[in-house]
Specification:
The structure holds 2 protein chains of 2 kinds.
Chain A lengths: L4 H4 L4 H12 L2 E2 H11 L11 H10 L3 E7 L5 E7 L1 H29 L3
Antiparallel strand pairs in A: 1-3, 2-3
Helix pairs in contact in A: 2-3, 2-5
Chain B lengths: L1 H14 L1 H25 L4 H12 L2 H12 L2 H18 L2 H30 L10 E8 L4 E4 L1 E2 H10 L3 E16 L2 E11 L2 H5 L5 E2 L4 H5 L4 E4 L1 H8 L9 E4 L2 E8 L13 E5 L9 E9 L5 H16 L10 E6 H5 L2 H35 L1 H9 L4 H37 L14 H28 L18 H36 L9 E7 L7 H16 L4 E7 L8 E9 L2 E14 L3 H5 L3 E4 L13 E5 H7 L9 E4 L8 E8 L14 E5 L8 E8 L8 H11 L4 E7 H44 L1 H9 L4 H33 L12 H27 L5 H4 L2
Parallel strand pairs in B: 5-10, 7-9, 16-21, 18-20
Antiparallel strand pairs in B: 1-2, 1-11, 1-12, 3-11, 4-5, 4-8, 4-11, 6-9, 7-10, 8-9, 13-22, 13-23, 14-22, 15-16, 15-19, 17-20, 18-21, 19-20
Helix pairs in contact in B: 1-2, 2-3, 2-4, 5-15, 6-13, 6-15, 6-16, 7-11, 13-16, 13-17, 13-22, 15-16, 17-22, 17-24, 17-25, 18-21, 22-24, 22-25, 24-25
Classes of the chains: A alpha+beta, B alpha+beta.
Chain lengths: 115, 877
């Protein structure tokens, strides 16, 4: 069964989530949302709420796991962590993204420079 | 894998859905609290911070909804709701549900029953190891037009040693066998097999062992018994192995017991004896031959090789016999012959047509129902249901209907299977194996779903097409039923009549064939005649002894009260004719020819007992004693063949070449043809010689004509009379001749009655279909009709209009059906007898019948239309 990538990592939100978890280790939902906003320089006008269905899908796919814990402020929160499968997935996704981005970049360069 | 995991995760989420719902609530709550806290740290007051947090989160309710979608099987919940709703909706129209479910259940039940027969007879593999490698081998003899003749052991031995295509070749044949026990001697179903038969078939005895080849060569008195025989005679006890039974007067030891389902070819045998291969003499051509192909050898390759071997063998034969060939036939095709195959597929196709007609009827009903529900659907659409959702709802209803019908249908099929097993013709091979196995149940399930989808599709499509316009146009004043759904219903009625006509023509042709076959003169009068096989004890080795025995038996029987006359013949009903060399004297010289000929010894009274007419000359008399000149009777077929246009009386013939030294017979009479090989077979040339001059074999057929209607009434007295003459004579197969004769007709009766039944059901369904449509059409056109009446339209005109509508449809369907029937008739022409596939009488009768039924079905709605009161136009708005 091949998972529908665009479905899971729709709008690359899923990719951002697992990259965040790889970089920072286990986090709860609000932290993940804030981190993504920060990294994107607050240019990403996303509803934080959309994060939760994405998290659920990632968990259903087995790329992240969750368990209840406490936040820095002592609240009961669900803490998400990257699984081994998720890490592997991240690498292939990253490579694909870079390749795709590279192609687009080269393409744009050629268009700009018609020599 | 990921998909599976997600599936499992969803499944568990479904189970603990309340739990996860609370989880997401908690998670959202803490998210908002964290965000609020952060905004407050940035200096916002509590209220504003809270609002900012909510703003950046987005819609909490939407999140929850999307979350729930991702998390659960929404479609499953929807489906559950659809099913609940469907049940409620169906319960509101019990009349529709009853009619639809009854129609579909009948159709599914009949189809499943028929499929169970096809499955058992045609599809299920034979109970041997790798059955596709097994083939029957036959001796082909063009001189007597015999493609599948039995073979001589010597020939088979040559095939076996020379062939590369066959791993091994085995032989078997039935053998007249008597069993002597404490209660006397009786005849049982016996046969003989070569030692390798079981290994060729890949069958192991359930107890004991097969024969060894040494035992077979030595013709040791050993026996393998059937499972049935073991149960009946030994109550399944283990001490049957090694026990001794007296077969043909010879004590034989039982070495093995065969599996319960063991059957070879079409023979049902209780006791098997071994026989060896013949290495010296050719011997009689009486053996069945079965071979196992080597793996990877195709049938064509085997046939090519065997033909080459046959040519090679022919070189060593005398010229008169040197045109033989070998025919290789897959065992599967031999066991179920082409005629049974065609018949079964025809019946399966017919019952499939019944299914389609039934489905068409129910579709038509549900179209009518969906038109009536247009308003409901429009309201649901207005309230926000998507078109897809509504279609799914409609399909759910019909699939539910199909499933329920399928369940009832399967119950009907289990009854049907019992009926088939009880009443199916014994000539249909493997009919006893018919049952409801997994494949048949799968078929029933598939049909149910198919019915559900077929029936639901049309209403769903028209609903989609109707665009779910807000109601008013459809539900309000209705000028005519000219919507697309009505057009579709008309098309369905046409299709129903097409199929019904095809079935009726098929049934008509079979009925005509049946009449024809029934009217064929068998050449004797079977009523009042009792038949039985009598076998002389093994001690009657001297032919004269047997002649004397049969004479005394006949004397005793003729003395029994209630007996009109009695006669003896070698064997009345036989399978294969033997090719005979025949030398006849006729005008213009003596001619030698080879003729497929049946030769039988008969007693003086035989023809009188059977009621076979004497065409010329005389019957045998007591004057035809051993020392008198040899005489013979010939049948009409032989008289016409060997003495064309001449009088055979007084002519002489001999069996064999002219100077073979055999006796010459003088023809003293010509008798009418007796159809001994079945009514539908050609009559073969026959020679009858008197018992007194030609001592018969140990087994003969006894025919007794009773004075009363019921020949079985004298059976006991006749048996006793035989016993008085020779208490060790074995009697078997006591039955009225009518009954034995009837098995020839059993399969034809089976096919004819089933197809007739199916076509009657089809016709009734088509009639109901057209009735429903016209009825509905009249109902929707009430106002139009009222208006016509108000404007001075005549009732008779209205009547003709309505009936005309129905007739147009039925005649269109009928015309299409005629074409279809003509086309299909040629494919099934092998099942016909005495009529052509395009028999004009059948086609005419059936067309008239169909038209009459259509008119009758339209009559009542049309009558109602005539009585429409013009006032209705004013009443309803």
């Amino acid at each position: 069964m091949t998972p529908d990538r665009s479905d899971v990592l729709y709008g690359t939100l899923g990719l951002m989530v697992i990259k965040t978890l790889e970089a920072l280790g286990p986090l709860h939902g609000y932290r993940i949302a804030r981190r993504i906003e920060q990294i994107s320089g607050n240019q990403l006008a996303m509803n934080q709420g959309t994060l939760y269905p994405a998290l659920l899908k990632l968990e259903q796919s087995g790329w992240i796991s969750s368990k209840w814990g406490t936040s820095e402020s002592g609240r009961r929160v669900k803490i998400y962590a990257l699984t081994r499968a998720g890490r592997k997935r991240l690498h292939t996704e990253e490579a694909q993204w870079q390749r795709a981005a590279g192609i687009v970049e080269r393409f744009l360069k050629i268009s700009e420079d018609p020599s | 894998m990921t998909g599976l995991r997600r599936f499992m995760s969803r499944l568990s989420a479904l189970v603990r859905s309340r739990q996860t719902n609370r989880d997401i609530e908690d998670e959202v709550a803490s998210h908002l609290a964290e965000a609020t806290e952060e905004y407050m740290r940035q200096g916002l007051p509590l209220e504003e911070a809270r609002q900012a947090a909510r703003r950046s989160f987005g819609g909490v309710a939407q999140t929850r909804e999307v979350y729930r979608h991702v998390q659960s099987f929404v479609w499953l919940e929807d489906a559950a709701r659809d099913v609940r709703y469907a049940i409620r909706s169906l319960r509101k129209s019990p009349a529709f549900v009853t009619a639809a479910a009854a129609t579909l259940a009948l159709a599914i039940g009949a189809n499943t029953t028929m499929f169970s027969v096809v499955n058992a007879v045609l599809l299920r593999p034979l109970p041997y190891r790798a059955p596709e490698q097994l083939a029957m081998l036959w001796t082909e003899d063009p001189t007597q037009n015999l493609r599948e003749g039995r073979s001589a052991l010597w020939d088979v031995e040559q095939w076996r040693t020379q062939s590369q295509s066959f791993a091994d070749v085995a032989t078997f044949d039935t053998v007249t066998t008597t069993l002597t026990g404490a209660e006397g001697t009786e005849q049982i179903a016996g046969a003989s097999m070569s030692a390798n038969l079981l290994s060729v078939l890949g069958v192991q005895p359930v107890r004991g062992r097969p024969f060894s080849s040494e035992e077979a060569e030595a013709q040791k008195p050993l026996a393998l018994i059937s499972h049935r025989f073991w149960q009946a005679r030994f109550a399944g006890a283990d001490d049957a192995l090694g026990a001794t039974v007296v077969l043909n007067g010879r004590p034989s030891q039982i070495v093995g017991i065969l599996p319960a389902d063991f059957q070879i070819a079409r023979l049902s045998v209780d006791v098997w004896a071994p026989h060896g291969a013949s290495r010296s003499v050719r011997g009689p051509q009486t053996w069945f031959v079965v071979g196992r192909l080597r793996p990877d050898v195709t049938l064509d390759q085997a046939q090519t090789e065997m033909s080459a071997i046959a040519r090679h063998l022919n070189d060593q034969l005398p010229a008169a016999e040197a045109s033989r060939g070998i025919t290789v036939v897959p065992l599967r095709l031999y066991i179920v012959g082409p005629q049974s195959r065609v018949a079964l597929w025809m019946l399966a196709g017919a019952v499939g047509c019944v299914f389609l007609i039934g489905a068409a009827n129910v579709t038509s009903l549900s179209l009518a129902r969906s038109t009536a529900r247009a308003r409901e659907m429009a309201v649901r659409a207005a309230l926000g249901a998507s078109a897809g959702r509504i279609v799914r709802q409609l399909l759910t209803e019909s699939v539910l209907l199909g499933t329920v019908s399928g369940l009832i249908g399967t119950l009907l099929a289990s009854v049907g299977v019992d009926l088939i097993r009880a009443f199916g013709p014994a000539t249909l091979p493997r009919v006893s194996e018919v049952n409801l196995d997994l494949r048949v149940l799968g078929w029933a399930l598939g049909l149910s779903l198919l019915a559900g989808i077929l029936v639901g599709l049309a209403p769903a499509m028209t609903t989609m097409r109707r665009d779910l316009r807000p109601s008013g146009e459809e539900g309000g004043r209705n000028v005519s039923g000219g919507t697309s759904s009505h057009r579709l219903r008309r098309a369905l009625v046409v299709a129903e009549f097409t199929l019904a006509l095809v079935l009726l023509v098929g049934a008509g042709l079979l009925v005509r064939s049946w009449q024809h076959v029934n009217n064929i003169d068998p050449g004797f009068r079977p009523d009042r005649v009792l038949m039985m096989d009598v076998t002389a004890p093994g001690t009657f080795n001297d032919p004269a002894q047997r002649t004397d025995l049969y004479r005394r038996v006949l004397e005793q029987i003729q003395a029994v009260p209630g007996v009109a006359s009695a006669g003896i013949i070698g064997d009345l009903f036989i399978g294969h004719p033997r090719e005979q060399a025949l030398t006849v004297e006729r005008d213009g010289g003596t001619v030698f020819e080879r003729v497929p000929l049946i030769r039988d010894e008969v007693s003086t009274d035989f023809f009188g007992t059977l009621g076979t007419p004497l065409l010329r000359g005389r019957f045998f008399s007591i004057a035809d004693q051993p020392e008198a000149p040899r005489v013979a009777l010939v049948n009409d077929a032989l008289a016409r063949r060997s003495w064309p246009g001449q009088d055979p009386l007084g002519r002489r013939f001999t069996l064999g070449p002219r100077d073979s030294g055999g006796p010459w017979y003088t023809v003293v009479g010509v008798v009418g043809d007796i159809r001994r090989q079945g009514l539908e077979r050609d009559v073969l040339p026959q020679v009858f010689v008197p018992l007194t001059q030609n001592p018969p074999s140990r087994k003969v057929t006894l025919a007794v004509r009773a004075l009363s209607q019921d020949p079985l009434a004298i059976a006991g007295a006749v048996r006793a009379a035989v016993g008085r003459v020779e208490k060790n004579a074995a009697i078997a197969g006591v039955a009225p001749l009518v009954q034995q004769f009837g098995t020839y007709l059993a399969q034809r009766r089976f096919e004819t009655s089933l197809l007739t039944g199916f076509s009657v059901v089809a016709l009734l369904m088509a009639a109901v279909g057209i009735y429903g449509l016209i009825q509905y059409s009249v109902a929707t056109r009430t106002q139009e009709i009222g208006l016509r009446m108000a404007l001075g339209g005549e009732a008779g005109h209205i009547f003709r209009m309505i009936v005309g509508e129905g007739l147009t449809l039925s005649l269109t369907g009928g015309a299409l059906g005629l074409v279809g029937a003509w086309w299909l008739g040629r494919a099934g022409s092998s099942l016909l007898s005495g009529v052509t596939a395009s028999d004009p009488l059948t086609f005419m009768t059936v067309s008239l019948l169909l038209t009459a039924v259509a008119i009758a079905a339209c009559y009542f709605p049309a009558r109602r239309a005539m009585k429409v009161d013009p006032i209705v136009t004013l009443r309803v708005t």
